[in-house]
Amino acid sequence: VSWLFSPARSEITSLDSGNIDDILNNADVALVNFYADWCRFSQMLHPIFEEASNVIKEEYPDKNQVVFARVDCDQHSDIAQRYRISKYPTLKLFRNGMMMKREYRGQRSVTAIADYIRQQKSNPIREVQDLEEISSLDRSRRNIVGYFEQKDSDNYRTFERVANILHDDCVFLSAFGAISKAERFSGDNIIYKPPGENAPDMVYLGSLTNFDLVYAWTQDKCVPLVREITFENGEELTEEGLPFLILFHMKDDLESLEKFQQEVARQLIGEKGTINFLHADCDKFRHPLLHIQKTPADCPVIAIDSFRHMYVFPDFSDLSIPGKLKQFVLDLHSGKLHREFHHGPDPTDVAPGQPIQDLASSPPESSFQKLAPSEHRYTLLREKDEL
């Protein structure tokens, strides 16, 4: 397929383990084509991707403004594994070296890809001209408001970088100079306005020039610890590559959801980044419930979807038992759930002379209902596929 490439015209950068970090970290926006030469659709995308690169290069000539790059996943399987690429071609967006959660799913045409990049380059922050605009914000959304003395400052540049990454999860606004003065009694600052008319504001107290601190604080506010999974975002959540811990509950059962959220925060905050905490509408996700031999009448139900199997938490009423939910997740990570799925309960290790009742561990038999493995990669999405 070498004839498909036109190096003289193309602005495509080939990435490998030696240059990928340097190139992506220095790019404001990078669109990376993860491909395989044997894949017909990868071959079809090459000339389109290159032409889109040429179009965008005319509009953004600075080499670090927009980078179009590609990775040969056969030659660089380590990179494909690093970014959890499992199908070809996959187009992923990066900002300052950080991969965005949402891959490009638009039309595979020069116009559509170019328009997508233009959209990504648009300013994610709305500048307010009067503080009255802040008082009339949509409080059903998560809002981050920055108050700065001037736009040309390190503080605002950090805020801008964070907004570029998280603008899909929060609404970002800014005010400058005289307009923001009333809110800058102790200097530039950033405020989080959570959903709810009466929800109290939260103030960022760290360094405004420390990107890692600002990003971590803002991400914590913009991305809920427990998110709702729907048919619209299910595949996107799956692409994050983390197993799911899911509460299935009736839509109006907010009490169970609140209890689940509290216990996740209490027991599993340290597991954030190793598993996705989700909740799902029992009525909408009847099919996954059938896989674990449950119906909406059994809700609330807690389960883990590892993308290979689904494992059921023994009893929702056990949720508040200290450490019970955490042990469920740890048993996933250790392989115990998978091992017991195939081989039955782990043998109980009893020291010579030690009575069984003295053991602090779980009962010898499995605490979890085990099911046949799913044949579909996106277990939770099977209902949508089969409708």
From TrEMBL:
Give a GO molecular function annotation for the protein.
Answer: protein disulfide isomerase activity
Keyword terms: Chaperone, Disulfide bond, Endoplasmic reticulum, Signal
A single GO cellular-component term from the record reads:
cell surface
Q: Where is this region: Disordered?
A: 343-373
Q: Compositional bias of type Polar residues: which residue ranges?
A: 359-369
The keyword Magnesium is assigned to this record: no
The domain of life is Eukaryota
Q: Where in the cell is it found?
A: Endoplasmic reticulum lumen
Q: What is its main location?
A: endoplasmic reticulum
Does Secreted appear among the keywords? Answer: no
Q: Which Pfam families match?
A: Thioredoxin, Thioredoxin_6
Q: Which InterPro entries match?
A: ERP44, ERp44_PDI_b_1, ERp44_PDI_b_2, Thioredoxin-like_sf, Thioredoxin_domain
Annotated Gene3D superfamilies:
Glutaredoxin (3.40.30.10)
* Residue intervals of the Thioredoxin domain: 1-122
GO terms (BP aspect): protein folding
Report quaternary structure and partners: Forms mixed disulfides with both ERO1A and ERO1B and cargo folding intermediates; the interactions with ERO1A and ERO1B result in their retention in the endoplasmic reticulum. Directly interacts with ITPR1 in a pH-, redox state- and calcium-dependent manner, but not with ITPR2 or ITPR3. The strength of this interaction inversely correlates with calcium concentration.
Question: What is this protein's function per UniProt?
Answer: Mediates thiol-dependent retention in the early secretory pathway, forming mixed disulfides with substrate proteins through its conserved CRFS motif. Inhibits the calcium channel activity of ITPR1. May have a role in the control of oxidative protein folding in the endoplasmic reticulum. Required to retain ERO1A and ERO1B in the endoplasmic reticulum.
What protein name does the entry list? Endoplasmic reticulum resident protein 44
